[in-house]
């Protein structure tokens, strides 16, 4: 009898993995990429009922760090990986593999009641460094400019720093925000504020500002005339395989994931 029970239990142990649920894929990082992956992730799980994704923001740097530390399988990033981050990952046995999934345009925004419509890259640098402090200097009303920026862990901040600031430090009086959504909230509630957000976060509560006479959009981002354009990325540990490859292929499919990239408001890489 004991032998029969032992054989029965052994049979359960051997066959159990066949019924186990698929492992959850952890995705962490950029709040710019986050709305894309939330939308695409929902569609992916609907198309693949056995798949499970857990998606959270926190910033590009935090996502890459989580990948390096084995805390997620996919890092979302609105910038490329730094040499120091790659070295740290490789020291832990992780090989960051970059996958471009969309194009984004960083857009300066103000309150809809602000009369200023045009600005130059140099003026943006002067605003964010504290050299220009009043809207009157830009053809606006006599009011102090409230500078809204992203925090330093953000890939959006680092892109802004690289393209706009050119090694000039952001003023210590700037109000640092942890996400694109927080910038939207701060600027939409303050007629004196200026901020910058990913193209996909534009809505009617904000007014976008043209830069160097160029209007931000899909065409100007792709042809390089918009001065603050960038690619959005996913990073995996090595070239994706199995379930991860299935997810990445879904994201890059013009009729699947890339369709949702467009729906969110970003610019698809594959049409």
Explain this structure to me?
By secondary structure, the protein is α/β, with parallel strands linked by helices. The protein has two domains: 2-103 and 231-268, D-Maltodextrin-Binding Protein, domain 2; 104-222, 3-Layer(aba) Sandwich (D-Maltodextrin-Binding Protein, domain 2), CATH 3.40.190. It contains ten helices and twelve strands. The longest helix is centred in the N-terminal third of the chain and has 14 residues, at 2-15. The radius of gyration is 22 Å and the shape is globular. The model is unreliable at 1-21 (pLDDT under 50).
CATH topology of the largest domain: D-Maltodextrin-Binding Protein, domain 2
The whole-angstrom Rg is 22 Å
Q: State the CATH architecture of the largest domain.
A: 3-Layer(aba) Sandwich
What is the count of β-strands? 12
Q: Give the termini distance in whole angstroms.
A: 65 Å
**Count of individual domains:** 2
The global form is globular
**How would you name the CATH homologous superfamily of the largest domain?**
Periplasmic binding protein-like II
Please provide the ordered H/E string of secondary-structure elements: HEHEHEHEEHEHEHEEEHEHHE
Low-confidence stretches: 1-21
The SS-based structural class is: alpha/beta
Strand fraction equals: 15-25%
**Number of H- or I-type helical stretches:** 10
Largest sheet: 10 strands, mixed
- The average pLDDT value, as a whole number, equals 90
Helix content: 25-40%
What would CATH call the class of the largest domain? Alpha Beta
């Amino acid at each position: 009898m004991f032998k029969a029970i032992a054989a029965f239990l052994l049979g359960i142990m051997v066959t159990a993995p066949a019924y186990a649920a698929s492992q959850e894929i952890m995705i962490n990082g950029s709040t710019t990429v986050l709305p894309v992956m939330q939308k695409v992730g929902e569609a992916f799980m609907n198309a693949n009922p056995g798949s499970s994704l857990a998606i959270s923001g926190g910033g590009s740097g935090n996502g890459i760090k989580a990948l390096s530390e084995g805390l997620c399988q996919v890092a979302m990033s609105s910038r490329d990986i730094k040499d120091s981050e790659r070295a740290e990952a490789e020291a832990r046995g992780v090989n960051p593999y970059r996958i471009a999934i969309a194009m984004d345009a960083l857009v300066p925004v103000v309150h809809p009641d602000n009369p200023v419509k045009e600005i130059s890259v140099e003026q943006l640098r002067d605003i964010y460094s504290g050299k220009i402090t009043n809207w009157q200097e830009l053809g606006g009303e006599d009011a102090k400019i409230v500078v809204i920026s992203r925090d330093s862990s953000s890939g959006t901040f680092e892109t802004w720093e690289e393209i706009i600031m050119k090694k000039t430090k952001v003023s210590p009086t700037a109000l640092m925000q942890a996400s694109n959504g927080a910038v939207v909230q701060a600027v939409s509630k303050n007629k004196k504020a200026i901020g910058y957000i990913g193209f996909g976060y534009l809505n009617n509560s904000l007014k976008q500002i043209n830069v160097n006479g160029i209007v931000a959009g899909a065409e100007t981002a792709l042809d390089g005339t918009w001065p603050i354009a960038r690619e959005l990325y996913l990073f995996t540990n090595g070239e994706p395989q199995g379930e991860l490859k299935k997810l990445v292929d879904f994201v890059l499919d013009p009729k699947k994931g890339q369709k949702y990239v467009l729906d969110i408001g970003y610019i698809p890489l594959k049409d």
